[in-house]
Amino acid sequence: MSRRATVRQVQYLDAMGIQSWQLRRAAGQNPDAAQPEKQGDTVAHLDWDALQQRVSGCTQCALHRSRTQTVFGVGDRNADWLIIGEAPGKDEDLEGEPFVGRAGQLLNSMLLAIGLKRDQVYITNIVKCHPPENRDPKSEETVCCEPFLLRQIDLVQPKMILALGRVAAQSLLRSKLPLGKLRGSVHSFRDTGIPLIATWHPAYLIRTPSEKRSAWEDLKLARRSVERAS
Ligand code: URA
């Protein structure tokens, strides 16, 4: 079965109620939250333009009230590398593009070090709106945004997903393990078979430069995964 079919299958499983009790419970915590399985259903067939339009008009969770604009994603829509961060920061909220602030500058340097320009990868976030005070996204916010991200993954069909930071890694892998335990090895993104590698968030690397060496090991692992899949 193709990767495109299996990503959609994941969405269908979600829509059919596998783990939906969890999704409903999380969504129920917020009066703004729609039933995510319905949202997933209607998003699963959108093309890029329709998807971007749907995201920009989204009012499913409370984050729409405080955002300047949604931050959809940027880069090569057919990239081998799909890079997923946590949520837009203040700079990204103002510019409408992921990773344009200090963390973004470091991400660009990390990519260049591994031989990639920013426009050769696709970059997006778990949630598309800036959480106030840079707090972590809440579970109901992540749940509301997930159909958008799953559709982006389905459209890009990357050879490898690089999750930046604890929030992205735990959310994509549906794990509560600390990032230190999730990084350093190759996971599979749910049942799609797409290799997923987790690494430190560039904002954390700015605060903790001693971990740059291990981040570099993760990037090399990511590159090897892409090479293997090519
Ligand atoms: N941090 C993130 O996780 N994403 C961005 O887009 C910017 C900073």
Topology:
Layout: H1 3-16, H2 20-28, H3 36-43, H4 48-56, H5 63-66, E1 74-75, E2 81-85, H6 90-95, H7 102-113, E3 122-125, H8 139-156, E4 160-164, H9 165-173, H10 179-182, E5 186-188, E6 195-199, H11 202-207, H12 212-229
Parallel strand pairs: 2-3, 2-4, 4-6
Antiparallel strand pairs: 1-3, 5-6
Bound molecules: uracil.
What would a concise description of this structure say?
The protein is built from twelve helices and six strands.
Your description of this structure?
- This protein has 230 residues and is of the alpha/beta class.
- The protein has one domain: 3-Layer(aba) Sandwich (Uracil-DNA Glycosylase, subunit E).
- The chain is built from 12 helices and 6 strands.
- The protein has a 6-stranded mixed β-sheet, sandwiched between helices.
- A hairpin with a 6-residue loop joins strand 5 and strand 6.
- Helix 3 runs parallel beside helix 8.
- The longest helix has 18 residues.
- The N terminus is likely disordered.
Which features does this protein show?
230 residues, alpha/beta, Uracil-DNA Glycosylase, subunit E, 6-stranded mixed sheet, 12 helices, 6 strands, 51% helix, disordered N terminus, binds uracil
Distance between the termini: 18 Å
Helicity level, as a percent range?
Answer: 40-55%
Helix tally? 12
Net shape: globular
CATH architecture: 3-Layer(aba) Sandwich
What count of domains describes the coordinates? 1
Strand order in space, largest sheet = 1-3-2-4-6-5
Going by CATH, the homologous superfamily would be: Uracil-DNA glycosylase-like domain
Rg, please? 16 Å
Structural class, please? Answer: alpha/beta
The helix/strand series, from N terminus to C terminus, equals HHHHHEEHHEHEHHEEHH
For the sheet with most strands, the description reads: 6 strands, mixed
Q: How much beta, percentage-wise? A: 5-15%
